[in-house]
Design goal:
Chain lengths: 251, 418
């Protein structure tokens, strides 16, 4: 992300936007929210947004109008003349987002935008990102909150130490996670070890977790379980991004 | 590639921020007060320096009044004689009043005296005494001595029966003309002070406002605002805008201070401003701007290298040290304006902004020398801007740790498409 914004030079490869290498002209049409937040602490909110908008080439009057609009959209109206340092952490975060959006960028690069936000701020930010995306702007954001990633993203890339471990749509990534079956029986007897054709992933206090390959037959498992005792739980565990991430990053 | 619009935006943000802060106004107010005070207070102290007041005790001394007046006039001394009845009266009038009289307290506060007399002359038979509270001014001593001499010779010759006309003609002094070798004497002291003053002003501007540039850059780096900026503004534009904005604020503040000092001086006439200064002012201003620019960019690089804002001082220390050396060399320039070493050193970019105007003040710099030094300085500034921009970019990437100067220069030297 920092390479896209011109802060770092890529160690290898090239960064393309619309088919050509990214330059200053392109970056003026990008919006950026760094992971470590950065605003002038002593500057007033509106003045700060207008400044960043104008640095990106916007005319003064337009910049003012856009700043006002975004402050309202991010529920910061009434705080326009406050110094940034006087705002709460959550509100500073909103101003930071407004600074990334104020010049109406074609590409929005957000580094951990949800980190440290309270649930209502997460809802506001999610809504804004959906709106911006529906206007046809591209959004690239990084997050460790994978539930949010599942809810918001069209395409997902899982990175570990600079290497791409997986990439694709949510459905494509989900398909890569094997199905898991959890069965719990009220018995102390070992009923699962001798079953043929299935692999036991682990046994714990919540029963037995089976790893099912494509087209696996689950009937022998159910039969063995009911013979062993009273069935307490029988269900598939969703193979979401969290599972995939665990599998890819820490095998 | 510098876009004036962006540089202007960055500069105007700096100006707005500095002018909206209380610190700028407080510092301007205090320095102006200090400058005006330094001019007005000595003037108040020196207000007492009218004619030397000479008390003449008894008729024998008072008879010398016309002779003393003539001699003082011939020697361009300003004295005022007053008759005093007795020696004890003279002692009283020479002693500063202990009782708080009107104006006496103020005069004592500034080290002046509120005594009625400066010296008194009394006769005791044939010997005379000059009485003073602490010291007898040597000029007055010499003056009285010559008058007493002439009076004594006159009375001895008169007693010996020499005709009055002969006495008078023999005691009439030979005409004496005062002549100097240089036809229009340069106000050397005034010009020395001007050379030092302009060096001090530059030092003040660089450490004060250059320091603001450094802390401003360090603040942007440590608050990560720089990451946001650098995606839209190349470091060279960012630095130029910052130096321009803070430089203009600094120039404005110093204009207020220096202007107030000059107005105060016009009122109290504390220091005589040498007329030679006038034509040199544009050159002094030019060197001031060049010197400030060079050092401000160097300070900006220092600000980019720190990990925490508190480190700015120590990283910028080498530049402050160079400034001190330059200032000391101004003293050397005053002592040896024509030394070949001073001449050589005055072309070095870090020293030129102080040494060249000093040499010009002292009349030892030729026009071509100044022009050449200005050219070298401009070249050095351009190089510093490039180096600072690279250090800024590289130091930003390193984010956390503080860089050493050798690291920074190595990084700065590395090729990178701007």
């Amino acid at each position: 992300m920092r390479a896209v914004m011109g802060i770092l030079d890529p160690l290898a490869g090239t960064l393309l936007w619309a088919g050509h290498q990214i330059g200053l002209e392109d970056r003026l049409r990008f919006g950026y929210m760094p992971e470590e937040r950065g605003l002038y602490p002593q500057m007033r909110v509106t003045a700060q947004l207008v400044y960043f908008a104008r640095l990106h080439g916007m005319a003064g009057s337009t910049a003012h109008a856009r700043a006002e609009a975004w402050l309202e959209r991010l529920e910061l109206d009434g705080r326009e003349e406050d110094r940034v340092v006087a705002l709460s952490h959550g509100n500073q975060q909103r101003v930071q987002l407004a600074a990334a959006l104020v010049h109406e960028p074609d590409l929005l690069v957000l580094d951990e935008p949800f980190a440290g936000l309270d649930p209502s701020a997460v809802d506001v930010l999610s809504g804004v990102l959906r709106d911006v995306a529906s206007e046809g702007r591209a959004i690239l954001f990084s997050s460790h909150q994978l539930d949010l990633v599942e809810r918001l993203c069209n395409r997902i890339v899982i990175l570990d130490r600079g290497k791409v471990l997986a990439s694709g749509t949510l459905a494509e990534l989900r398909a890569r996670v094997p199905q898991r079956l959890r069965v719990q029986v009220d018995t102390a007897r070992d009923w699962s070890s001798k079953l043929a054709g299935v692999r036991v992933l682990r046994k714990d206090g919540d029963g037995v977790l089976f790893d099912l390959g494509p087209g696996s037959n689950t009937r022998p498992i159910l039969r063995a379980a009911t013979e062993a005792g009273n069935l307490q739980f029988y269900g598939f565990e969703s193979g979401g991004l969290i599972e995939l991430y665990r599998e890819l990053v820490a095998p | 590639m510098i876009r004036p619009r962006v540089v202007g935006l960055v500069a105007s943000r700096e100006i707005t921020e500095r002018l909206s802060g209380r610190a700028t106004w407080t510092v301007t107010g205090l320095t102006t007060l200090l400058a005006v005070g330094l001019i007005v207070v000595p003037a108040l102290i020196n207000q007492q320096s009218g004619p030397t007041r000479v008390g003449l005790v008894g008729p024998q001394a008072q008879a010398l009044t016309p002779a003393l007046a003539r001699a003082a006039h011939a020697a361009s001394l300003s004295i005022a004689t007053t008759p005093v009845a007795s020696t004890s009266d003279a002692r009283d009038e020479l002693t500063p009043q202990r009782s708080p009289g009107s104006g006496g307290r103020l005069a004592r506060l500034f080290g002046g005296s509120d005594a009625q007399l400066d010296v008194a002359l009394a006769f005791d038979g044939s010997s005379a005494t000059i009485l003073a509270y602490q010291t007898v001014p040597p000029t007055i001593l010499a003056l009285v001595h010559s008058v007493l001499d002439a009076t004594h010779q006159r009375s001895v010759l008169s007693a010996a029966g020499v005709p009055t006309s002969t006495i008078t003609s023999s005691l009439t002094p030979v005409p004496l003309n005062a002549q100097t070798i240089q036809s229009t004497p340069r106000n050397r002291a005034g010009l020395n002070i001007a050379a030092l003053a302009s060096a001090f002003l530059l030092m003040y501007a660089v450490t004060g406002f250059g320091g603001l540039v450094a802390t401003g850059v360090a603040q942007e780096k440590t608050t990560r605002t720089a990451e946001l900026l650098i995606s839209a503004v190349p470091p060279s534009e960012l630095m130029t805008g910052k130096v321009l904005g803070i430089g203009l604020v600094g120039l404005g503040m110093m204009t207020v201070t220096v202007g107030a000092a000059l107005i105060a001086n016009a009122f109290v006439k504390s220091a005589a401003i040498p007329p030679e200064l006038g034509p040199l002012l544009p050159q002094v201003l030019l060197w001031f701007v060049l010197g400030f620019t060079l050092y401000a960019f160097a300070f900006a690089a220092a600000g980019a290298m720190v990990a925490r804002q508190e480190e700015v001082q120590s990283v910028a220390m080498p530049f402050a040290a160079v400034l001190v050396v330059a200032l000391l060399l101004v003293y050397a320039t005053i002592a040896f304006p024509d030394s070949p070493w001073i001449r050589l050193l005055s072309f070095l970019p870090p020293l030129a902004p102080m040494l060249m105007p000093a040499r010009s003040f002292l009349g030892s710099a030729d026009g071509w020398e100044v022009a050449l030094a200005v050219g070298i300085e401009l070249f050095a500034i351009a190089g510093t801007v490039r180096l600072t921009a690279r250090i800024y970019q590289r130091a930003l990437v390193r984010g956390g740790a503080r860089l050493s100067w050798s690291q920074a220069i190595r990084l700065g030297g590395g090729a990178r498409p701007d």
